[in-house]
Amino acid sequence: MQWIMLLIAGSLEITWAVAMKYSEGFSKLGPSALTAVTYILSAVFLALALKKLPLGTAYAMWTGMGIIGTTVLGVLLFKETLSFPQVVCILLIAGGIAGLKILA
Questions:
Q1: Collapsing DSSP states into helix, strand and coil, what is residue 44?
Q2: How far apart are CA 24 and CA 65, in angstroms?
Q3: CA distance linking residue 93 with residue 96, whole number of Å
Q4: How many CB atoms lie within 10 A of CB 51?
Q5: In angstroms, rounded to a whole number, what is the distance separating the alpha carbons of residues 62 and 102?
Q6: How far apart are CA 9 and CA 66, in angstroms?
Q7: CB-based contact 61:6 (threshold 8 Å)
Q8: What is the pLDDT along the chain (104 residues), one digit of tens a residue?
Q9: Domain membership of residue 50 as a residue range
Q10: pLDDT computed for residue 104 by the predictor
Q11: How many domains does the chain have?
Q12: Could you give the count of Cα atoms lying within 13 Å of 11 in the half-sphere of its Cβ?
């Protein structure tokens, strides 16, 4: 169950980061409110996951999911570009997340 909580927390982290981009510096009410709500919920679900998971593992996976998710959505939604070294680094982060899950 703690892994599901961590997955939800990571998904919410991605949501608040993307909503923050859409808020245009908190100048748009809807995306700004979504940012605030999902930011808080992300922290709540991370806290629930931390009841059973080691801090270092859970936090690294939470931030890693956020990095990967926001990077992918940045490319898809905002037409951001990635260089080959950036893609390699993102893949290394994904590998690290997988390794943490396998070893935890």
A1: helix
A2: 23
A3: 5
A4: 10
A5: 15
A6: 9
A7: yes
A8: 999 999 999 999 999 999 999 999 999 999 999 999 999 999 999 999 999 999 999 999 999 999 999 999 999 999 999 999 999 999 999 999 999 888 86
A9: 2-103
A10: 64
A11: 1
A12: 7
Q: What is the predicted pLDDT for the residue at 101?
A: 83
Instruction: Output DSSP code: residue 46.
Output: H
Identify which of 15, 74, 4 has the alpha carbon closest to the alpha carbon of residue 45.
Answer: 4
pTM metric for this prediction? 0.90
| Structural contact between residues 61 and 2, judged by C-beta atoms closer than 8 angstroms | no
Q: Is 27 helix (H, G, I), strand (E, B) or coil?
A: coil
The answer to whether 60 and 95 are in contact (CB under 8 A) is no
Q: How far apart are CA 46 and CA 59, in angstroms?
A: 8
Can you tell me the distance from the alpha carbon of 92 to that of 84, in angstroms, rounded to the nearest whole number? 12
Closest CA to 23 of 11, 9, 15, 34: 34
* Backbone torsion region of residue 24, taken as left when φ is above 0, otherwise alpha when ψ lies between -120 and 50, otherwise beta: left
